[in-house]
Amino acid sequence: MSEFAPAAGRLAVLTRQLCAAAASESTWEHVAQAPPDPIIGVTDAWRADTDPRKLNLGVGAYRTEDGKPFVLQAVREAERQLSADPAENKEYLPISGLPEFCRLSRGLALGPTSVAIQEGRVATVQALSGTGALRVGAEFLSTHLPPAHPRIVYLPNPTWGNHKTIFAKAGFQVREYRYFDPASRGLDFAGMTADLASAPPGSVLLLHACAHNPTGVDPDAEQWGRLLELTREGRLLPFFDMAYQGFASGDVDADAAAVRRFAEAGLELVLAQSFAKNMGLYGERAGALSVVTRSKEVAARVESQLKLVIRPMYSNPPKHGAAIAARVMGDPGLCALWKEELRGMAERIKAMRAALYDALQQRGVAGDWSFVLRQIGMFSFTGLTRPQCEQLVSKWHIHLTLDGRISMAGLSAASAPYLAEAIADVVSSGSSA
Amino acid sequence: MLQIAKMLQNVSSRAAGARHVFSARPVCSRVNFQAVRAASRFADVAQAPPDPILGVSEAFRASTNPNKLNLGVGAYRDEDLKPVVLNVVKKAEGNIFSRNENKEYLSIEGLEGFRRATVDLLLGQGHPAIQEGRVAAIQSLSGTGSLRVGAAFIARFLKGATVYISNPTWGNHRNIFGDEGVEWKHYRYFDAATVGLDFKGLTEDLTAAPPGSVVLLHGCAHNPTGVDPTPEQWAAIADLCKERNLLPFFDVAYQGFATGDLDKDAFAPRLFVERGLEILVSQSYSKNLGLYGERVGALVMVVQDKESATRCLSQLKRLARALYSNPPTHGAKIAAEVVNNKELFDEWKVEMRGMAGRIERVRGELQAALEAKCPQKDWSFITRQIGMFSFTGLSPAQVDNMTNKHAVYMTRDGRISLAGLNSAKVEYLADAIVDSVRNC
């Protein structure tokens, strides 16, 4: 059957075309409706909800205490400066993006004392936020890993939904490693290390640098050390997704500790960096892809090949977001202001965790809810079951993804008690089936 | 040190005796690979050549020759050879900033106001296809990004289809379809003898194309030749597509730049839709709104019915999600602001006519200069060709002479961008061309 497949496919195309022509029906009759994106669906449902108590806990974007989107002052100021600068124009950026942005991005990630940067061993290209960096990185690896290396990527279970799609599109076989432990709502480290130890050498290992999405569960320092050993022994290629640098702890250096440790250990690694959350640049699509290699020479060749991936994808990246980010990172005053605002956002998230925890304790909700305080970043994996989540939506008008993930960014001091009340209700009623 | 690492790899692979070099743990696992600078897994990655078009600007920037002239990339320059930010763009940006808007993610399909505006521009406001809801449009990353999403859609939903692209065409077309695994073939287009359209060859090649094939057509101001079909020829091509069941895919990167008139330049895709054909269109606002680096464009599908449009949009979104999730907001806001604001829109049309007019003028001056210096050759193609580019007919060797001897930077296919020429440099360029033609 398999040797007839290409011909059968061709025949199908022809048949469709000829029939379509005859019946004057669309060429696209056979195109099925794609399923709706689950995350976007949450916000759509929230918008349509008329109940005044409604909460949007599906949002992956920071919200203020008033539930409003937030544009950082540092960003506004950088934008103002750009608009007033006569040297600015709208010319194409180079394929690899705004050079200053690339330089500052990798510096932010790898740190001011990075030997890899000093030795010129890091190839960096501007990318379309985190998604674009992941896609370009995946395509590059698919083409340029040595032929003997398996095109296999290990993703944590669970992970951001788009990871699987992106790597699959780039021709990778996707495998999962155990990660979230539902019992403790923490890290299943034994499972994780067992799965990684059995990975074929040369496989790609996707790691969330900090503030794991969707669980909020991160390895601790000791565990990162063990992961480094495993990666090195197993000859795995670490591919870090860093979408929350500065957002997890409030400190950009602390949040980059894992990435820097791997780089300092002399490992080659790939890094996807996003400025969507930590600079609030969401829709401007500011991101960077870095490949840390073993020599300056290799880095140069890698960069040239990254450009060959980019040119047929979008030619060159959008300028506005990167220009803002470069200005913020490069100007000492703006940079300091940014870091202060970033700390503020991270602190509010932590305060919401505390508020929710306290409210749950006050209501004496059954179970150990300390994980709310332990989990890191915007998201919390509550461990609520699908039926319980559905109850939250239908009865309490609290909108979240049905995997039990809530976004702390969607909470306020005022709404935390309401959420606690709702949780108390759904876990106590018979809907825990 | 590299040798030791390689030796260890060989030892392990022989030990493993397996197909893959890395299928067994290395024999000497106790060796500290940190001390030995292990070979990079990217050691065999080859240096890629510079991009044939964008590389020209890189080379130009690197040149220290005071006479240097950049006729490479199709980016508009004013009479002082400076980049131009359109007045309407500056005003639009001012409006946007004063509104203090947020930077939230756009939906996967992009800014609603922009999507409406771009379809209106393409088909004309109030077009029946729009009213019938049978147009699917997503905002994407300028022309390249839109073509890429379209190519991905074809790869997924027209498996096995071949895309026919003109010979010559914009070089990146081949890479875009190639990277999506879509097979491409050429159809004859440019006739070097007449410096015009090889309509007979085009017709023969498209007639021979298997039904269900895709045909990539330049909506206007063909890149790199500047040679466009006449309205009659467009009608014949449309009929051919209907008869042979070929799917037209328009690359519209110069709407407004060809004749200076937005509606006239949309003649071809509108004609095809009128003839009842389903089409794909990639639109770019890089040149006509001067939004180059902001990456503003759209992929549009005009289909037979509303239901199909809805389904197609859902799948376009899925493809975009895996490439970049959602498109950049800034450039789209500017474009929407200009098109949807009557005053700005009218002012835009004037600015665009100005740009197209300057190019027409330098074309005339260049032709006159060449005719004076080299009357034996027919230089009339320079004013016959449409849009930003002129296909000079210079050979690669002649192009090398242009660059190496005269510091005129251009692509090796003989294309020059008139947008990069001004009156002051016309004589210089004419001398360089004549020298290259005569002596190479």
Automatic annotation (TrEMBL), chain A:
GO terms for cellular component: mitochondrion. Its cofactor is pyridoxal 5'-phosphate. It catalyses: L-aspartate + 2-oxoglutarate = oxaloacetate + L-glutamate. It comes from Astrephomene gubernaculifera. This is Aspartate aminotransferase. In eukaryotes there are cytoplasmic, mitochondrial and chloroplastic isozymes. Homodimer. Belongs to the class-I pyridoxal-phosphate-dependent aminotransferase family. GO terms for molecular function: L-aspartate:2-oxoglutarate aminotransferase activity; pyridoxal phosphate binding.
UniProtKB/TrEMBL annotation, chain B:
One of its GO terms (biological process) is amino acid metabolic process. Residues 67-433 form the Aminotransferase class I/classII large domain. Its EC number is 2.6.1.1. SUPFAM superfamilies: PLP-dependent transferases. Keywords: Aminotransferase, Pyridoxal phosphate, Transferase. It catalyses: L-aspartate + 2-oxoglutarate = oxaloacetate + L-glutamate. Signal peptide: none annotated. Pfam families: Aminotran_1_2. The keyword Transferase applies. PROSITE patterns: AA_TRANSFER_CLASS_1. It is an enzyme of class 2 (transferase). GO terms for molecular function: L-aspartate:2-oxoglutarate aminotransferase activity; pyridoxal phosphate binding. Its cofactor is pyridoxal 5'-phosphate. Belongs to the class-I pyridoxal-phosphate-dependent aminotransferase family. PANTHER family: ASPARTATE AMINOTRANSFERASE (PTHR11879), ASPARTATE AMINOTRANSFERASE, CYTOPLASMIC (PTHR11879:SF46). In eukaryotes there are cytoplasmic, mitochondrial and chloroplastic isozymes. Homodimer. This is Aspartate aminotransferase. It comes from Astrephomene gubernaculifera.
